[in-house]
Amino acid sequence: MIMKIVVLDGYTENPGDLSWAELESLGEVTVYDRTSLTDEKEAIERIGKAEIVITNKTPITKKVIDACRDMKYIAVLATGYNVVDYLYAKEKGIAVSNVPAYGTASVAQFAIAMLLEICHHPAHHSRTVYEGRWENCKDWCYWDYPLIELWGKTMGIIGFGRIGQQVGRIAKAMGMNILAYDQTVSEEGKAIGQYVTLDTLFAQADVISLHCPLFPETEGMINKDTIGKMKDGVILLNNSRGALVAEQDLADALNSGKVYAAGLDVVSTEPIKGDNPLLKAQNCIITPHISWAPKESRQRIMDCTVENVKGYLAGNPVHVVNR
Predict the structure, then answer these.
(1) What pTM did the predictor assign?
(2) Which residues span the domain enclosing 219?
(3) Do 144 and 98 share a structural domain?
(4) 123 with 265, same domain?
(5) How many CB atoms lie within 10 A of CB 123?
(6) Tens-place pLDDT, residues 50-101
(7) Which of 7, 96, 128, 275 is the least crowded, having the fewest Cβ atoms under 10 Å away?
(8) pLDDT digit string (tens) for 139-185?
(9) Virtual CA dihedral for 163, 166, 168, 173, nearest 10 degrees?
(10) Coarse DSSP helix, strand, coil percentages of the chain, rounded to the nearest 5 percent
(11) Catalytically active residues, by annotation
């Protein structure tokens, strides 16, 4: 029997520059660009009698699981799998797999890109040149923002797993001192930076970069109280999870100058809402959650997902998050 496979929201993973061919070789594949994030009925109708369901951000809730009785396997096109009620799926005998470690290089690179943009604003200064400002300048150069040299400054990294350590390696190569906070201490991490308490990191870091998962204990960990423990003029980077930051508190700190600048690729509600206080904050770079999205990174997602499906079909599912 030909296996029915449904991809509920494939567009962000593959807007046309990748191929679904390897997946299509495994069964009868239907790919939807987008499926409603709120209308469970649409997800139920599209899944139909499919045994394998692939999702990125479309929720697979208890209601969806109960309605789609032929569903036996869920593959998530991401590392995070909170869009699936994976515990209820386990009760129903449905394995859920994710894609671990696909974006280490790209996410780390993007964190550093945001930092360098804050330190030099190359895009802004390039625009002023094309607008004729350099041509008409009385001096041979000019700059509109403080230009910041990172050599000798301290980066504090909260969450020192694969991505955090890669950020540390790059920052260290630029001459920065690395402080790290994580629940787990590793020898590999010790070779990159010094593990310290969270309060020590807040007090000593010139740049703080967030690379930890979102749990109840980390939600809102960057808030009025913790910002108060930081250096005046600290730079904050977050391309991990938006809800790690209490956004009004960060906006207030940016507007007061306590936090010099922030580089954010994630916010608490995505897409961002027009009333998000960070949209009106000073010195705040916000990008639309694209750290993960270079073609090379997305190809790794595609390849891993195909292998995940192959494992399920062979009776040996891999990267299962709800064993």
Answers:
(1) 0.94
(2) 104-286
(3) no
(4) yes
(5) 8
(6) 999 999 999 999 999 999 999 999 999 999 899 999 999 999 999 999 999 8
(7) 275
(8) 999 999 999 999 999 999 999 999 999 999 999 999 999 999 999 99
(9) -160
(10) 35, 15, 50
(11) 241, 270, 289
